[in-house]
Amino acid sequence: MTVSYNQRGLYFNGHHSQEFGLVETTDDSIGMPAKNKYTVSLVGSNSVLDLSNLYGPTYAERTIQKTFICNQAMWTPSAQYSLWTAVVNWLMGPDEKTELIDDVMDDWHYLAEVQEAPTFKEGLHVATITVSFTAYPFRIKNDAEFDDVWDTFAFETDVAQETSFDTSGRNAGVLVNIGVANVAIQVTTSAALTMTINGTDYALSKGANADSELVLMPGENAIDFTGSGTATVSWHQEVI
Q1: Which of 158, 156, 64 lies closest to 104, judged by CA?
Q2: CA–CA separation, 158 vs 154, rounded Å?
Q3: How far apart are CA 45 and CA 23, in angstroms?
Q4: Which fold has domain 10-141?
Q5: Topology of 164-239 in CATH?
Q6: Per the confidence metrics, is the pTM higher than 0.90?
Q7: pLDDT tens per residue, range 194-234
Q8: CB atoms within 10 A of CB 55
Q9: Pairing between strand 108-113 and 139-141?
Q10: Can you give the residue ranges of every domain in the chain?
Q11: pLDDT tens sequence across 123-149
């Protein structure tokens, strides 16, 4: 086991791990999501029919595992178990996926929940806690598109794109989703408008519009507006 002495950790359920005196080790694992594949064997053929992309690719949940060393000053068994109680209640409190921010990449967050029981190993002068989070497949950027702040803009992956439109002037545009799966968007308008995304029309009311069908596909998405007013499209990048 190797200890990371830069005091990195994670934020979850309203608290940072450092608040409990936990020191993160390097024995952690950020699991990657697997693809969900749906195939049918064809009778009389060696081929299989892949139905996975019928409604777009889908991915399985990912697992994030972290191991912490308890504050080395907590050398008595009673102190260790007192800390253990506080930590377990912190980790297992949420009953649904909650924002998790890893210090290693704090511009992004995961949606995660502790579903399996954490493990606690008591030592002579130290104790370790290992916890596994079950998480939504994708890592989500904290700032919505378009973030052109110099310190947070990633020149290797981010796209400088216009997300606000004056529909009485320039109606058409292109929005780029850098992820590998559909991402939900919110469209805020100053008047009732019709938005066309990749040839499909969506009626928008004045104000904020969010619907399960309002999504951007991976890559470039052609958009257009019909009507007079302004429209701002907002979403958060989701990447593996």
Answers
A1: 64
A2: 5
A3: 56
A4: Elongation Factor Tu (Ef-tu); domain 3 (2.40.30)
A5: Jelly Rolls (2.60.120)
A6: no
A7: 999 999 999 999 999 998 889 999 999 999 999 999 999 99
A8: 8
A9: antiparallel
A10: 10-141, 164-239
A11: 777 788 999 999 999 999 998 886 555
